[in-house]
Specification:
The chain has a single domain, classed as Porin (Beta Barrel). With about 240 residues, it is mostly beta strands. β2 and β3 form a beta hairpin.
Length: about 240
């Protein structure tokens, strides 16, 4: 069963052009405002997104880059292999985002962005765009919201909410926990909840090893099927540079 709705819809080219155009404008604007380029890469045993596998439990290679200005505005691109239902022929995902992040107070930070999901070379239009915001306290606790009127590539709205926390045990080990709820009544006539618990070991800069246990409720299994939802363990070797 596909992780994306199989209903056809009009192509969202204006949205994708706007995001791509915004990336170019931000890059040009970096000449007038000091900017920093960072990147990340990961090899994972499973690409799990909001509790459900995007690779049918198979490994994934992922990489991304972020260009951020001193004023807080940023643009990023990130990619991974995926494996949806065979009839979609979806084999890769490319995420493009434009956003702003900054301090609201000494312990409070806000991140707002527009995120566009693209699935090149598919037989169906699975592309969609989402508005996201996250509020972080003391760099340890966060509340995140994501809304789209074309959730999961449909023509309908979906609202995602997540709360989470991270706790450093020592300089090389930390634990992270998060719980999310995805309201998809307009898309599937149902909604689901998921949770995850991670241990992250700093091996040697910039390498980290992450082990994550994921769990979803029965509603996720009804929506996506047992092959995509349920309980699973994910291990990833990741690096930031």
């Amino acid at each position: 069963m596909s992780m994306r709705p199989l209903r056809l819809r009009e192509a969202s080219l204006p949205l994708s052009f706007a995001v791509c155009g915004g990336l170019s404008l931000l890059a040009l604007g970096a000449r007038a405002d000091a900017a920093t380029l960072t990147g990340n890469a990961a090899l994972t045993t499973d690409y799990v997104w909001r509790g459900s596998t995007q690779t049918q439990g198979d490994p994934a290679a992922q990489a991304g880059f972020k260009l951020a200005s001193d004023s807080g505005f940023y643009a990023s691109v990130w990619g991974s292999n995926v494996e949806f239902a065979p009839d979609t022929h979806a084999s890769s995902e490319l995420d493009l985002s434009l956003g702003w992040t900054g301090k609201l107070a000494p312990d409070w930070a806000l991140d707002l962005n527009v995120l566009h999901y693209r699935y090149p070379a598919t037989t169906r239009d699975l592309n969609w765009t989402e508005l996201n915001g996250s509020l972080t306290y003391a760099d340890r606790y966060w509340l995140a919201l994501g809304y789209s009127n074309e959730a999961l590539g449909s023509r309908d709205g979906g609202l995602y909410t997540q709360i989470g926390a991270r706790y450093p045990i020592n300089p090389r080990l930390r634990v992270e926990a998060a719980a999310g709820y995805y309201r998809l009544q307009q898309v599937y006539g149902d909604s689901y909840a998921h949770a995850q618990l991670s241990s992250v070991w700093a091996i040697k800069a910039p390498l980290e090893l992450r082990l994550t246990a994921h769990a979803t409720d029965s509603a996720a299994e009804r929506i996506f099927g047992d092959d995509y939802a349920g309980d699973r363990i994910e291990a990833a070797l990741q690096a930031s540079f």
